[in-house]
Amino acid sequence: MMSGNAPLPITFDEYGRPFIILREQAEKGRIRGLEAQKRHILSAKAVANVLKTSLGPRGMDKCMIGGDGEVTLTNDGATILQEMHVEDQIAKLMVELSKSQDQEIGDGTTGVTVLAGALLEQAEQLLDRGIHPLRIAKGYEMAAEIAIKHLQTVADKIEWSPDNLAPLKEIVATSLGSKIVNRVTEQMADIAVRAVISVADLERKDVNLDLIKVVGKVGGKLEDTCLVNGIVIDKDFSHPQMPSQVQDAKLLILTAPFEPPKPKTGHKVNIHTVEDYNKLAKHEQGYFTKQIEAVKASGANLVMCQWGFDDEANHLLMSNNLPAVRWVGGVEIELIAIATGARIVPRFEDISAEKLGRAGLVKEIGFGTTKDKMIVIQDCANSKAVTILIRGGNKMIIAETERALHDALCVARNLVRDNRVVYGGGSAEMSCSLAVSQAADQIGTVEQYAMRAFADALDAIPMALSENSGLPAIETVSKVKSLQQTEKNSRLGIDCLAKGTYDMRAQGVYESLISKQQQISLASQVVKMVLKIDDVIKQGSM
Fold this sequence. Notes:
By secondary structure, the protein is of the alpha+beta class. Helix content is 46%, strand content 17%.
């Protein structure tokens, strides 16, 4: 018995198992100091551990089930965290970290979260040894600076040109290796690179990804995915008897509906006789006729309308041999205008020949035995806009392929901006780990411990790659790091695909330099932020 203390309230469940009731637990709304820091580290590690098994070409997929029962299959880090709907404040920081990497770089969302989790895990051990959080944060900052500079020394430049895209395709294929599309990696890499080069401004080294439209259509197989030099919209012509193909199209893009003008105030029309009705119908038809005549007078032979129109207008358009597409979305309207050189017309009074767009061919295509149809606009006056048409067996495959292609497009864009690359397979992290450890030996202050911890955390990436590939993690990483040090070869990494060589250049495994630098920079920034929090105050707990 414990003297001087009140006995703990013990009760028993229906199976006779004892448990203790802590009466004040629900009232405890504030934590501070070391307890707060450890709680935060635990939350961040939990998020990182979820993603760790999805890293690399042998990484596993996650099945995310939404509140409405919608299923998402993916191994994309940003998508997994976005679908998790975490409640913890520190876990939300990890989600924002992954989102920042996705928005800035587009690739490496899993790696940056795993690295941040490893840094916090190492920080926990330093906290247990009594090192102040600010000294740990300072050490991490120094180590991150050394690692980022070291990456520049081990980076190689990839020489490519619009006539020689093979080096770009090889690098983009690395980002697709861990995705669901890995069986058609070469085809997808080719599509992504050609799409980016089509819209790239090579003089300014800039790429506007908004000019690349990605459209998915259920049916067919992944191998049927193709790049269309033009625009594909998920619509069909408004009347089944309209021609399904228009050569040398002169497009009129309207944001005004084909209908009589509506008064802005409430009005009431009383019709008492048949003559009154006929007069009203004739007057309404007169509006439609004037609108059709205005379109015909401009020389247009195809109309794209943002709004709908009724059967009367549809019949008149068909009778006047004017193919039309209705309910075209605002984003698609803008893309069509950019591609064809058309001006968007808000009123029928503003229609003129100068505002028409040009396209070599506009056609309606069907798919299999279904009634689904799409409009393809090809040979546009301004070929800067392109569309990737994805085919797949179901919606989940198409959605995951869209995410994979987004990563591939971002990698290609990054290489247009900066053609320097480092080697994958964890080789860059192990090389940085060796460089940081060596630098830590020259530091005489407490920060040296944080720098060594940073170096150990960098090994979390190759360790995860080894584990996910079914290799003995500690043995493999130790062996490769030893080889890197003895051979002075920073290209050596984890042989995830069992190709028989540790040389990542020979395997063709690359990552863009700016992506790797951004991962280290963002992860260290978030970790410093978490370490500096020593008090959590909930509203109403003071």
